Amino acid sequence: MTPRVMGIVNVTPDSFSDGGRLSSVEAAVAHGLRLVEQGADLLDVGGESTRPGAEPVSEADEIARVAPVVAGLRAAWDGPISVDTMKPAVARAAVAAGATMWNDVTALTFSPDAPAVAADLGCEVVLMHMQGAPQTMQTDPRYDDVVAEVRDALLARAGATMAAGVARDRIWLDPGIGFGKTAAHNLALTARLDALAATGFPVLYGASRKRTIQSVDPTATDPGDRLGGSLALALEAARNGAAIVRVHDVRETVQALKVQAALTRSSP
Known about the structure:
β5, α5 and β6 form a beta-alpha-beta unit. The protein is of the alpha/beta class and about 270 residues long. The chain has ten helices and eight strands. α1 packs across α2 and α3 runs parallel beside α4. It has an eight-stranded parallel sheet. The two termini are about 15 Å apart. The longest helix has 18 residues.
């Protein structure tokens, strides 16, 4: 099955790829709607960078960044909107403004009440794996078996989330490419994404423009020069069971997935 494409709408001044580019609500909404025109099935709005070494953002500032953008998108579009946040209060504000999914890089561990808030909101929830915290996660990530350990950690979080009252069919798993992993870990998780898909939970995969691509092609020092690698990773994730791919370059990803699907249908 061809995965759905989630377009990234960053309203942060310091995101690794496009920080500061969408400096107003109007610009962010217009960008999101352009991504929809290019074929995005979902939009993911984030107001706090989680790149390696990123500094935290206050709850009030994050709400001020994301809630008006979610509301503006909802006024113009009736498709799924995700809020990329670890803070329950931000998730509440975003859902009130029209978001339908909570995408949490901490897998609902940032706040003790996060699972209960997710249950109360009733929205879909993405549980992402991260070893450590954004400030330190890339210092020295280690695993004995990265695929098994990430899978097991996410299953444990899914269990805790369901125990708090979130329905199983509302839960997504994300291996957390680049979050407390080396390039070798990220490539192994991508190549073995089927192990995560085999859990029965739908999988969201996001490796767009990430530094793993530079590890393979050292010339790709600028995130904007990583389109080819981003497409290769998205296609491999799709082949291995991803149900959503989260990307910056929507038009190109949609086209690549269409060609991949056509090739699959044409194969003997």
